[in-house]
Amino acid sequence: MAFKLFLDKFLVLEGLLIYRPPGPASKFLSLWPSLLEPLIMAPKAIILGDFNIHFDNTRDLLVAEFLNLMVVLDWVLKDGMATHRAGHTLDGIFTHPEEDLCLSTTPLEWMDHALLTFKFLARQQPIISIPQKKLIRSWRNIEAEPLKVTLINNWNDPKVSMLSPLARFNLGIRQAMDTLAPARISASRTRKKPNQPWFSQALKILQRKYRQKERCWKLSLCEAERVDLKLALNTYKEACRVAKSDYFTRKISEAANSSRELFRTVNVFTTPLGTPKVENSQDFCNKVANFFQCKVLDIHSSFRLDKKPANPSPPVNYSSSPGGDN
Q1: What PANTHER family does the record point to (predicted)?
Q2: CA separation (Å) from 113 to 46, 50, 78, 95, 110?
Q3: CA 268 to CA 260: how far, in whole Å?
């Protein structure tokens, strides 16, 4: 049985819940690759259940074939401890090698199988101002010829011959990425944008409400949800406009008795943040004028193919007076 786990309306985990009745496992192994196809490209996945296969008996050819197939498909058996009263490992949990899983077994008096409990990290909640680890790949390092050779080698691998063409292609792409552009950990810092001085806690609550309605509408695409979203958004915008107007009015009223403070306050409102300072010296103006003058002469000289390029005239000093001594 396939299942999907959602957290806050986001898909965080996909998996398979398996029960195989006791008996020969050859038919089960022939059907097993097709069951794994939906999980090949899943970022977070888990496989668990009662396989009725003695995973502890690695000398068995069927068990060895099954475990080797899982390793090829990038799945590993977590903590192969005894799960049956007779001391065998019949139940198992498979995850990707990089996943961290805390597994424990508890014997039960009323049945011959033990109870398996585990903790699985579905999603890490981001924390502001704390470096977060993420995996990145250098896609520019992948060249066409090495990628082609890697895909052909993976396609001709006899270990994956039992998979369908689509599953073999997806598996080959994944292995090629891990070979040519291996994932590496990059630390990034989440920066929190500072709020405006007029942005109050009440506005933050209204902002959360309209974003919540926006998420609900994107999931349902219902007309009623869209109307609620539009109403919440208009309410939030109007509240922001009123709060901003009241804040600016109060600041200007407080500086009404001082011209210096009034101009300083208005300058803060009208000057965008991060505006670069412009040099107003006479030398800077001369440099700008000379730059464009030389640029125009260079463009003109590029069209004169039969003549030598014209020499640019000497820089003009606009600070000197137009008149001169005779």
Answers
A1: ENDO/EXONUCLEASE/PHOSPHATASE DOMAIN-CONTAINING PROTEIN, ENDONUCLEASE_EXONUCLEASE_PHOSPHATASE DOMAIN-CONTAINING PROTEIN
A2: 20, 9, 17, 21, 9
A3: 12
